[in-house]
Sequence to fold (288 residues):
Amino acid sequence: MATSTLGSGTLVLAGTTSGTTTVTATAVAGTTTLTLPAATDTLVGKATTDTLTNKTLTAPTLASANITTALTLTGASGTNGQALTSGGSGNAPTWTTIGATPGGSTTQVQYNNAGAFGGISGVTTDGTRMTASTTIGVGAATPSISGAGITFPATQSASSDANTLDDYEEGTWPPSVSSMTTTGTPAYAGMYTKIGRVVTVTFYTTTANSGVATYATIAGTTNVSGLPFSANAVIPNAAGGFAGIAINGNTNTGGFVQGPNSGTTFYFNSAITASQGISASITYYSST
Fold:
């Protein structure tokens, strides 16, 4: 069995069964003291991997840390709602109040209000659905300032998805009539509504009692052009476009209009007798 020896600056301890452990004292100025704990314990080495329990580190410098459970900070603590924020390179972190208070009232949808939370009073949720009590703009459209509904952009942003409603418009259009026999100088106007690709237009006389108009008696020679949207060139009607109705303002007798099978023109395909006012309506699919 090896024996323990004590030399100048070294202590050689014999192992319990074999080998030795050498304790070396480095050269120091003056006298130093190494105090062993008054407990049955295991000393921790500089280069060993150990688990420390109930230890207090004073002004430590951590090159890296991996906290697997929880970190409890004592001393200068923050207040409720504060969090530790970086102090920058070489500076200690500080407690900072975090603006995380929801804006608006309960159920209101939140949004970023210049770095803080805001609440949209007109848009609420029950956790599953959203409700808008005002107007919503899509496609970068500015929402209407009145009523409640969806505002589409002035220029349609067409979707390739057949199940997407990408346009709604209402407006007027300037009809241009050709090949019509008239008495006086009647004037005409048109209105339209477009929902997706479905366009419904109306055409009517605006000068009551001053322009007596007679449609040409040959079907298809009286054309009305200037429709607000070009028609889809693929038409399911072999007769040439979509069918509509025309009304004689005096007698309420009717005729038929047809088209457009493409472009922006429809025509009368039956004669209508003299009238103080005429009107027509047709629904067709636009090309976009």
